[in-house]
Design brief:
The chain is an alpha/beta fold and about 210 residues long. It contains seven helices and eight strands, in the order αααββαβββαβααββ. Helix 2 crosses helix 3. The longest helix has 22 residues. It is globular, with a radius of gyration of 18 Å.
């Protein structure tokens, strides 16, 4: 479940003209005072800007917007998931569900539907590990990549019509691994979604 702060950020991404605390409160079904406190906290973190326009205080997404989590690197799974969700929404997809990656919630990390159709997209999201005292980040990343590919194998077996994608941060080790399994893409009909440090997303293979 997304936090109120994350929902505020998601709304402001869709409203470049900004929103007042009252508009955000109505859109999110929250008390204005609650939203005011959330926006002040986000502004303090540098995630949004509060400026007066025509004498009315409005909230704007910071430009460029920092990572939603200032406690994690941009390669963290939750940040990768958020950037992909934003990318899909900007292209008309509706996000139907978003797993709590911090709690390792099972199932699809993102489920999106294209409006006016039955077209669904299931996304498995992986971040880039920090490694452990016994395992290097690159070695751990290979294990995470294998889990992502297994998700694709499992999901394609469950549904032949759904669009599938693997979302990963732009890292050399992941790019090399993707090249090694490139032959699977036409058979399993899935895409790679590469998230860059600047928040941009590259689609490799189309979205179904």
């Amino acid at each position: 479940m997304a936090t109120v702060g994350e929902r505020v950020i998601a709304l402001l991404r869709l409203r470049p003209e900004g929103m007042t605390d009252g508009e955000l409160a109505r859109a999110l079904g929250k008390r204005r005072q609650h939203i005011n406190q959330v926006c002040l906290r986000l502004a303090k973190k540098g995630l949004l800007e509060r400026r007066k326009v025509g004498g009315i205080l409005r909230n704007f997404l910071a430009d460029p917007p920092p990572s939603l989590s200032d406690e994690h690197p941009w390669t963290w799974e939750g940040n990768v998931q958020e950037q992909v969700a934003r990318f899909l929404e900007e292209r008309g997809w509706e996000i139907q569900s978003k797993a709590d990656t911090a709690k390792k919630e099972p199932g699809q990390d993102l489920v999106a539907r294209f409006p006016g159709s039955s077209r669904l997209l299931w996304v498995t999201v992986k971040g880039y590990p920090r490694g452990t005292s016994k395992t290097s980040p690159a070695t751990q990343a290979r294990h995470w990549f294998k889990r992502a590919i297994f998700d694709i194998l499992d999901w394609r077996g469950r549904d032949q019509a759904v669009a599938l994608a693997v979302a990963l941060p732009e890292k050399k080790v992941y790019r090399k691994l993707a090249d090694r399994v490139r032959y699977l893409q036409p058979m399993l009909r899935f895409s790679f979604l590469w998230v860059r440090e600047d928040g941009g997303v590259e689609v490799d293979g189309g979205l179904g």
